[in-house]
Amino acid sequence: MLNFTIGPVMSGEKVREIGAEQVPYFRTPEFSAVMLENEALVKRFAGAEENARVCFMTGSGTASMEAAVINVFTEKDRVLVIDGGSFGHRFVELLEIYEIPHTVIKPEFGKGVSGEQLAEYDGKGYTGFLVNLDETSVGVLYDIRLISDFCKRNGIFLVVDSISSFLCDPFNMKELDVQVMITGSQKALACPPGISLIVLSEKAVERVYANKPKTMYLDLKLALVNGERGQTPFTPAVGTLRQINVRLKEIEAAGGVESEIARIGGLAEYFRSRIKELDLPFRLVSASLPNAVTSLSPTNGKSANDIFITLKDEYNIWVCPNGGELKDTVFRVGHIGALEKSDYDTLLNALLDMRTRGLL
Ligand SMILES: *Cc1c(COP(=O)(O)O)cnc(C)c1O
């Protein structure tokens, strides 16, 4: 199988080797050392400040989105939220569930937000901002500089879901004054699903300790206190955390976050340029492309979902289908996980073969 979806993605050999091992008991100094190393490497790769902390949550990315919202915001906040696709919409739903006052910014489909759009909210008393840096459902990368500048000049607490942009697109928490950054194990970390991570700035840590969310499992105070000694309050996905450790060290040894971003960006660039050169009947859906994913729409009336099914059933290749309204018009090709240029050649050859067969 060749997997070009955007999570879970293909894992490298070292990560898979750990997956085959027995899961060890975790209340040990050895496991604590693994966790403290994980925290240090994630902070480095996120460009977090010295006193930042990382919470490792057992739960998919959405668990950390929910934890972030309820641990740093209250009903006294006024939050701006970008709803440019299904992940943005998830933040909106969370704000609704927890009755946190908010205003939704809805960008045009496939587009980012402009400086003028944001300027409308200058000086209006907003206290928080929520954005999915790469809105993975559409494949739109928002302009984080623009958002960061807006938040800086308005003193707004910025929370970024970087689940599909961490290790893919340049990002520096400290420089951008981002207070909370979220990511997950099954995207560019290329590990099995099960762990999501929340990086908290010093200011965010203060908010967490001052806040009293009505939750036990998602209360980050517990994660922070236990994390000081490299532990978690409850049994975590121990195996996945060990895989994350191996993967983070692999990235470090290969030149760090910049090299990983360049590698993923190179694959995205290669695939996009080959699509054009081969004159395949696709249009790019996004006007602001992230490195993690390319969203494509067939220009010849063929169904995107049929293309997904044919690739899966007849070529053993998985691209990422879209759901709902976009089912027949959009599919996505990911650039994260253990993929190489030659894998894209395999995918492109399959698409060329489908064209010859009249299926594309
Ligand atoms: C994958 C992803 C999530 C998390 O989804 P889960 O299925 O809960 O892991 C959230 N936000 C973005 C931008 C994502 O790409």
Question: In a nutshell, what does this entry contain?
Answer:
With 360 residues, the chain is of the alpha/beta class. 42% of the residues lie in helices and 16% in strands. It has helices spanning 13-19, 29-46, 61-72, 86-97, 115-119, 144-154, 173-176, 202-210, 220-227, 238-253, 257-277, 304-315, 341-356, and strands at 2-3, 53-58, 79-82, 102-105, 128-132, 134-135, 140-141, 157-161, 180-184, 195-200, 282-284, 293-298, 317-318, 320-321, 331-334.
Question: What characteristics describe this protein?
Answer:
2 domains; Aspartate Aminotransferase, domain 2; alpha/beta; 360 residues; binds pyridoxal-5'-phosphate; four-stranded antiparallel sheet
Describe this structure in words.
It is a single chain. The protein has 360 residues and is α/β, with parallel strands linked by helices. Helix 2 crosses helix 10 (238-253), helix 3 (61-72) packs across helix 4 and helix 11 packs parallel to helix 13. 49% of the residues are buried. It folds into 2 domains: 14-253, Aspartate Aminotransferase, domain 2, CATH 3.40.640.10; 257-356, Aspartate Aminotransferase, domain 1, CATH 3.90.1150.10. It is built from 13 helices and 15 strands. The chain is globular, with a radius of gyration of 20 Å. The protein has a 7-stranded mixed sheet, with helices on both faces. Pyridoxal-5'-phosphate (PLP) binds at residues 7, 60-62, 87, 132, 134, 136, 161, 163-164, 184, 187. Pyridoxal-5'-phosphate binds at residues 7, 60-62, 87, 132, 134, 136, 161, 163-164, 184, 187.
